[in-house]
Specification:
The chain has helices at about 10-20, 80-85, 105-115, 130-140, and strands spanning about 30-35, 40-45, 95-100, 115-120, 145. The chain has four helices and five strands, in the order H-E-E-H-E-H-E-H-E. The mean pLDDT is about 95. Helix 4 links the parallel strand 4 (about 115-120) and strand 5. With about 160 residues, the protein is an alpha/beta fold. A five-stranded mixed beta sheet has the order 2-1-3-4-5, with helices on both faces. Helices cover about 30% and strands about 15% of the residues.
């Protein structure tokens, strides 16, 4: 008899995005992303972190201070990393699962890459100009976005 308690596609891919977020060394915000084809195949993953070759130990992780003493001008967001990490092929018509709604800079990369849908876990910066700009650009380009509805299922991994 076939199991009935398996993960839905949304649970599976959002779970991968959340697991990817665990790779982030940012002490304040961990974001993960998973890009999936229209055939439910994983195309790429990413998390927020410093650019390749920039030592995590030498770069700033703070949120306050002089701009060059903070993480903001340096950190690559999970969505951008996932787009850049794809090994080959197109992201046309793909779905992006992400733990935090994309900023306007990531929205531009999402649009340019051909991703057609964004499924997000949190939208805690919904009132910011950056997220408002993201939504405006998504609306103009026909990219759909929807909030992931948590099922509150628990999956325990022993590593």
């Amino acid at each position: 008899m076939k199991r009935t308690d398996y993960l839905s596609w949304d649970e599976y891919f959002m779970g991968i995005a959340l697991l990817s977020a665990c790779r982030s060394k940012d002490s304040n915000t961990q974001v993960g992303a998973c890009i999936v084809s229209d055939e439910n195949k994983i195309l790429s993953m990413g998390y927020n972190g410093m650019p390749t070759g920039c030592s995590d130990d030498e770069m700033p992780w703070g949120r306050e201070g002089e701009p060059l003493e903070t993480k903001y001008p340096f950190v690559c967001h999970a969505e951008l990393n996932a787009i850049l990490n794809r090994s080959s092929g197109s992201l046309k018509n793909a779905r992006l699962y992400v733990s935090l709604f994309p900023c306007n800079e990531c929205a531009k990369a999402i649009i340019q890459s051909g991703i057609r849908e964004v499924i997000y876990m949190e939208d805690k910066y919904a009132d910011s100009d950056g997220v408002k700009a993201s939504k405006k650009m998504f609306d103009m380009t026909g990219i759909s976005y929807k909030k992931y509805v948590p099922t509150n299922r628990k999956v325990e991994l022993v590593l």
